[in-house]
Structures are given as structure tokens and as C-alpha cells.
Amino acid sequence: MRHLLSTRDLDRATAVGILDVAEDMADVAHREIKKLPTLRGKTVINLFFEDSTRTRTSFELAAKRLSADLITFSAKGSSVSKGESLKDTAQTLAAMGADAVVIRHSASGAAQTLARSGWIDAAVLNAGDGTHEHPTQALLDAFTMRRRLHGSASRGKDLDGLRVTIVGDILHSRVARSNVWLLQALGATVNLIAPATLLPVDTSGWPATIGFDLDTAIDDDPDVIMMLRIQSERMNAAFFPNAREYSRQWGLDDERLARLRPDTMVMHPGPMNRGLEISANAADSARSTVLEQVANGVSIRMAVLYLLLSGSVKP
Ligand code: CP
Questions:
Q1: Helix, strand, coil proportions of the chain in percent (round to 5)?
Q2: Is pTM beyond 0.90 here?
Q3: Is the distance from the beta carbon of residue 269 to the nearest atom of ligand 1 less than 6 Å?
Q4: What is the ipTM for the molecules in this complex?
Q5: Domain boundaries of the chain, sorted by first residue
Q6: Among 98, 109, 118, 237, which residue's Cβ finds the most Cβ atoms within 10 Å?
Q7: In which residues is L-aspartate bound (predicted)?
């Protein structure tokens, strides 16, 4: 694997292999072992053209816990405000010596462009590109599901037969797209629930069923319910006219939470709009994996940095 751009590129064996390496990394990620020297002498550049809390900081921690040198670049306050292009920005930073570039960008396809253009000679990791993909988020979601299901016996396992319902703003969600492809590769089934205005026009070819009614989906007794953030910054009133109506029809409120099995996983990639797509009780309940997802993000990002920069030999 030269780059990590999309979960669509991952088959079952590769995906399970990444999750297994993340298991190997977990003791370091969770600070039971302080650091590994594995990437000493390597340089990782975090290139963030869009805001982030979880992805940026966990890539930073992952690089540091593997002893890599790290530069974090935010477009805000940089020469991007003077009109410098993605190509010139990437080449400028790469000229200082980059082995890996982690990129988040508002344009769908930005990571692919960087990887395939030949502008830089470094591994490219997609940290979220527009509404296209967010592969490390889907990997950490799958890792979290596998750990909840199998605990310390997770290694080598996939998600065969797991029934996952993803709810909300599918149209703008790179998390949903990456999850659909990865969950299929791992043997899970995916049901997408959204208002018609928040579904892509063409979902033919997506390995998922589509529905509009959250209550019916909850009656179907899913193993996982993943609530998506309403991405107000990417939409106008035509998509999303009324917060109260949205919450009433598509929010995971306390009444719907009570109808889920005690072991149904409640997931959210964050950041959450509490009271809109998810109630505070649902976000903070024992079913919620929200903070586990954040913690597991460090293990997954250590695993992918390790695999891209050191080859596929186990640490
Ligand atoms: N889930 C996620 O990508 O969060 P951030 O935008 O905070 O990185």
C-alpha cells in the first residue's frame, strides 16, 4: 500500500490486517507503553485546509508515539490566504523533506490529486476530502465495533453478519461513504436512513439498503446505529428547513434510545450537534462508543502511518 485514499480500495484481508496492526499499537496509543522508535528519522506533514479537532490531533499523537518528526500546517494563517495553490503549498512543504503527507481538504478528490499528480514523492493519507471519503474514520469505526464485539480476542476477525444502520446527512457525509465500502468488505450489512433531501441523487451501486423512516429501522433491531452530524456549513434551507422537525423524525432521542437493545452500539464520528441528531442521554449512555472511537483513532492512525512508512512487516 503506497497511499491511503479511500476504503473502496481495501479488500477484507487488507482491512483486517490494518485493524490487527492497530491492535498491536493500542498499548502505545493508550499510553501503557510510552513510545515506539519505529518511525524515527521519518517526517510526517499534517496538511489541514479544513478545521479538525479529532483527526488532526490524533494523527499528531500517532506520529509522535511512533517517534516521527511532525509538522502541522493549517491553511488559516498561511500563504494560502495570499492565493498559494495546493500544488505549490504541498511542494513547498515536501521540499523540506516529507515521507508522509496527511491531507484534509474541502474539495472532493484533493487527496487523490496530490497522490496521483506526481507533485510530491511522499505517501498520501486522506484525512477527509470534501463529501468524498474519510478512510481513517471508517477504519477506527470498524475497529471500535470489532473491539466491542470481541474484546481482546479481536485479532483476525471481520464484522461478518453485523447489521449497521447509518442515519442522517448521508448526502454530505464522507464518513458514511467510507463506512459503506469498508463495512461491506468486512462482511457487515448497511442500512442508510435519511430524509430524501439528504440522500445523494444516485446511490445505485452502493452496497447498502436505503430507507427514510428511523422508527422502522429501530424496530428492525440493528446491532449498531451510527448518527451523522448535520453539516450545516455545506447546505442551505432547501436541504434542511427545520431543526425541530429534523430532530423529531431523524434524531436519536431518549424514547428511541430506550427501544434499542442494551448492547446496541450508538456511534457518532463527532463533532456532535447534541439535541439535533442525537440527545445528550444517547451521546453519554453506556451504549455510546463516541469516546472509544476517539481513543481508537490514535491506534488506527499509528497503524496506517506505520504500514505506509515501514512496509507491511509487523512492528
Ligand atoms: N470525525 C472527525 O473527522 O472529526 P474532526 O473534524 O474533529 O477531525
A1: 45, 15, 40
A2: yes
A3: yes
A4: 0.99
A5: 7-134+296-310, 135-293
A6: 98
A7: 82, 174, 229
7-40: per-residue pLDDT in tens? 999 999 999 999 999 999 998 878 777 899 999 9
Q: Which amino acid is at 52?
A: S
Ligand 1 site-directed mutation target among 55, 136, 172, 226, most atoms within 8 Å of CB: 55
Cβ distance 142 to 159 under 8 Å?
yes
**Residue with CA at minimum distance from ligand 1 atom 7:** 53
Question: Which one of 1.10.10.10, 3.10.300.10, 3.90.1150.200, 3.40.50.1370 gives the CATH number of domain 135-293?
Answer: 3.40.50.1370
Residue 223 C-alpha cell reads as 446491532
Task: Give, using CA atoms, the residue closest to atom 6 of ligand 1.
Answer: 52
Confidence at residue 189, expressed as pLDDT on a 0 to 100 scale: 98
Considering only CA atoms, which residue is closest to atom 4 of ligand 1? 54
Rounded CA gap, 157 and 15, in Å?
A: 10
